[in-house]
Amino acid sequence: MSLPSHVYDPLRIASVLSPAIFSLGDPDLLVELLNSNPAGVVLVEADPDLPIVYCNETFHRWAPLRDQPILGRPLPELFVWADRNTVRSTYRQVIQSRMPVHRRSVPYHLRADDEDAVGYWSASHYPLRGPRGWVTHVLTVSVDVTDQAVGEARLQDTQHRALTALARIAKHLTAAGQAPSFLDELSATIGELVAAKRVSFWLYDADTETISAQPARLGFNDDELQLASGLPCRAGGTGALERVVFDDLTVMRGAEVVVPWKAGEHRLGAVGAYESIRPSGFTNEDVRALQAAATAAALVWENRQADDAVADLREREATNLRQRIEQSIQLEQLKTDFLKLASHELRGPLAVVRGYVSMMEDGTLGQVGKGVAPVLPLLRAKLDEMNQLINEIVETARLEDSALELQVQRLDLRDVVQASVHALEPLTGEGLELVARIASRPVPVVGDGSRLRMIVTNLVHNAIKYSPQGGEIRVTCTAEDGMARVAVRDQGVGISPQDRDRLFTRFGRIVTRETAGLPGTGLGLYLARDLARRHGGDVTLESELGRGSTFTLSLPLSSS
Ligand code: ADP
């Protein structure tokens, strides 16, 4: 069984045993035990002078008296003057409070003439009481702890330097700049910390299994750098650097200290400090400070590598994005150019065909055959449909070129609606009924007649197109609350709520099983809403999937 370590602490043994032994009352045993005690023991009378009544051999050896008698001498005399007041006040406290006083690692002057010669002691002072309870004596047990205290102070200094190293290196965490200038800063900081003329970061390259000194302000010069570059470095190698990198060895030879440079298990290489500025060379504390600095530098390095990787990624993503945007701008331009071209090329021939159909209708070309007359209205409607399609394309192209100008005038919206409905009637097949409910009084608006007709035609045409199962299409034109409204209600396929916004975007089409075969550009509603808004109005929608839709064009009523 191992004993608790305090059992061996001579101060504790003496402190605990001495008062107990005193109470034994056997002077011989007492003296023998006290004399063999490795701690100094001194007994003084509770008198202002603190005369020494007894001291053991250890204490006697410490007292600077040579052969002079010690008994009867005031205790404070044994101390150099600077410590005497403290001694007196400590004893006064013990006598007055009747309580023991324990003091640990108290500094004292070794010599009167040397301020810097300081030792440390730990002491316990016990009050001994007479029959009436008054303190008659004070027993002091003391141990010289100078070695211990100096060791602790050195440890504290080392810790302090290591912490300073960490803090100072950590500052570089946020520093910007490329790797060389960054290592420049780091090596300068470490140089100051460990008082080295030169500091070098050795970076290990796992691919080539080599290690190279990195260029830095406090590092090697160019020629040396060349020599210190690409040195073989393999696990299991016996070279000093190899062992530092792979076996976590710390090299310390008079003019150089080399420690591992690693972040967790990631071996970055080694950090070396060379040529100490101190005449006595590098100390153990320097090694500790360098180790702490290397650990911090590794974290900083890793952090920066991660930052660089993220920045790289961002840059690549930004370039990709830029390219994609450029591509889509080009594509947009191509589309617009195509729309312009297609509409221009189609318009000419269509105008010619429409002209001939008109001539057939009004008899300019003579009597048309019996078989042709009935299909003329459908032919006309289809040509109008085509014309509407081309107009939509032309208008969209204009809109995108910002070349669209409204030719506004005061007009009755009822005329627009009637003309559109009339033109589209031939397109309603079997099972589809187109009903117009037009206000009996004028619905005056200020607008561009052909554009407004384009809007209404699109809405009615869509209602026909997207009612494949037939049903009623009801077109109403009303004036109410200062607004003119044209509502087109169908009982067609309907539109789901999540698709609504998309309808009004350019080329926005919803293709379902039911509508897959229907022709269209996806431009009509986009244009309709844009044109309506340019008139100070809007095109809105209410719909239920599978049950039908109502599109409403609203425009401000003209007051006069
Ligand atoms: P398109 O040329 O495709 O008809 P539009 O811009 O006029 O282009 O319409 C966009 C889309 O809105 C259509 O493709 C269709 O999916 C949907 N849509 C328009 N009107 C109706 C309607 N009355 N009923 C159901 N869906 C409609």
Written overview of the protein:
The chain is α+β, with helices and mostly antiparallel strands and 560 residues long. It has 14 helices and 18 strands. Strand 10 and strand 11 form a beta hairpin. The strands form 4 sheets. It has a 6-stranded antiparallel sheet with strand order 8-7-6-11-10-9, with helices on both faces. The longest helix is centred in the middle third of the chain and has 79 residues, at 284-362. Adenosine-5'-diphosphate (ADP) binds next to helix 12 and helix 14.
Which features does this protein show?
binds adenosine-5'-diphosphate, 24% strand, disordered N terminus, alpha+beta, elongated, six-stranded antiparallel beta sheet, 18 strands, five-stranded antiparallel beta sheet, single chain, 560 residues
Q: Short description, anyone?
A:
This protein has 560 residues and is α+β, with helices and mostly antiparallel strands. It contains 14 helices and 18 strands.
Give the topology.
Layout: H1 10-24, H2 27-35, E1 40-45, E2 52-55, H3 57-62, H4 81-97, E3 101-111, E4 114-129, E5 135-144, H5 146-170, H6 179-194, E6 196-205, E7 210-213, H7 222-227, E8 231-232, H8 240-247, E9 251-253, E10 256-263, E11 266-276, H9 284-362, H10 376-400, E12 409-412, H11 413-424, E13 432-438, E14 444-447, H12 449-465, E15 471-480, E16 483-489, H13 500-503, H14 524-534, E17 538-544, E18 548-556
Parallel strand pairs: 13-15
Antiparallel strand pairs: 1-2, 1-5, 3-4, 4-5, 6-7, 6-11, 7-8, 9-10, 10-11, 12-14, 15-16, 16-18, 17-18
Helix pairs in contact: 1-2, 5-6, 5-9, 6-9, 9-10, 10-12, 11-12, 12-14
